[in-house]
Amino acid sequence: CAHGREGVLIANIASPTSVRNLRTNPRVCVSFVDVFVQRGYKLVGDAEVVSPADARFASLQAPLAEITGGVFPIRGVIVVRATAVEPIVAPSYRLIAGTTEQSQIDAAMRTYGVVRARRDA
Fold first, then answer.
1. Cα 49 from Cα 111, distance rounded (Å)
2. Residue 87 in contact with residue 39, Cβ under 8 Å?
3. Phi and psi (nearest 5°) for 39?
4. Strand order, beta sheet including 76-89
5. Residue 44: beta bridge partners?
6. Which residues neighbour 9 within 8 Å (Cβ) at sequence distance 6 or greater?
7. How far apart are CA 45 and CA 24, in angstroms?
């Protein structure tokens, strides 16, 4: 996923059902959440599916291909134009006194079994 001048860009790598649904109803809700910090955003808006036959495809897929390193074939680009953006915040920030981003990160790392990489000097 990348952000371009046209909106939020999502690579269609293996989502034929999503593409079919968007062609029928372009209204979307897309959520982005940092699983460690437990914060993110919900975007509501309209989506357009841009196929390889479209003149804009090459320029839209370029930043997505860079992110994927060219490992996955990009069959199309979904352009989301947000009409509303809302924050997503884990309930613990409001309900558990003393919750901080660092405490959320520590808890997520324990939950997911993530270990920080050693940085040798």
1. 36
2. yes
3. -140, 155
4. 2-4, 7-12, 76-89, 39-50, 27-34
5. 29, 84
6. 1, 2, 3, 60, 63, 64, 77, 78, 79, 80
7. 15
What is the phi/psi pair of residue 30, to 5°?
Answer: -120, 130
Mind listing the pLDDT tens digit for each residue in 60-80? 999 999 999 989 999 999 999
Place of tokens 């062609």: 23
Instruction: For residue range 12-32, list pLDDT tens digits in order.
Output: 999 999 999 999 999 999 999
Distance CA 48, CA 27 (A): 9
Decide: 105 and 111 in contact? Cβ < 8 Å.
Answer: no
Cα(61)–Cα(6) distance, integer angstroms: 12
Integer CA distances (angstroms), 16 to 7, 54, 93, 100, 118, in order: 21, 18, 37, 39, 41
